[in-house]
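Morning!

This is the sequence you dropped in the shared folder:
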Amino acid sequence: MRFSMTLFRALALLPILSIPAFAKPLKITEVTSSSSYPEEKGRTYDPKNVKDQKLSTAWFEGVDGGGLGSWIELSLEGPQTVSAVRVWNGDWITADLWKRENRMQDIEIETSDGTKYPFKLKDEMAVETLTFPSAVTTSSVRIRYKTIFRGSTFNDTGISEIQVLDTTPSKNVPVAGYSASSTYPADADGNYGPENLGDGMIDSLWCENAKTDGTGEWVQFTFSSSHALQGMSIRNGNTSSLPLFMSGSHASGVTLTFSDGTTQQIPLKASINDQLVPLGGKSTSTVKVAVTGVQKGQDPSNTDLCFSEISFVE
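The structure's back. Tokens below.
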């Protein structure tokens, strides 16, 4: 793209992720591991990287060889009812590195009472949801791997992101389809499709490709049926990091257009954090989010307007 992001982005032609709506992620209070690869060239491999909502960070074990028997453990807020664990296996910073580094194959997930559940992962750069035979009550989840898929170049094994899911249905409305007025073309840093807005990761973006500053550009969300929307959550701009947010353009306001043709004007803050917009139970099957104002970033060469995440709750 027209701004340097290679070491901070995790978008190298990644497959579109569809986050199931049947359960929501639980809060992870602490992450520990049997070992960790040391920091190298400014990139860290700490176990806490698996809970930061970024595909550009990962945990890697730090022992010789492929690290067979290594583990990573996620602690929860006391005993929780858990239905599944979702895993982004391997290093997702680029598709090339994913192939060059080891990925887990046969694993066991151990709960806090010592019960162990075996799973076999696929050798695919795709999120996997590992569902327990029945819901379990546990205060922690430990993932230990027994075998690996060998990388083509390096002999270290890692995981980019992990979510622990409860049994409570998510309030997020599932999106059946995404469309946009324009989309910046995929490059060495990755793809910028509107589907990235629903993948749960804050360092994968939709970016417009207009020759203007982005005013008038839009992205549309289509639901499978009409939903009574209580609110919208939006991450405005590139929220991968504060420096990247400050360097690039972000919206100062948007207009929401619903399936019945009515609209709602929304001012947006110049903030890297989630912004929650009340919608008052508006019933609609589509929402078009159109940019009505743009705040330019500090880097004059970075003229592309982006959003990191947009979701709707009912």
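Headline: The first strand starts at residue 28 and ends at 33.

More detail when I'm at my desk.
O.
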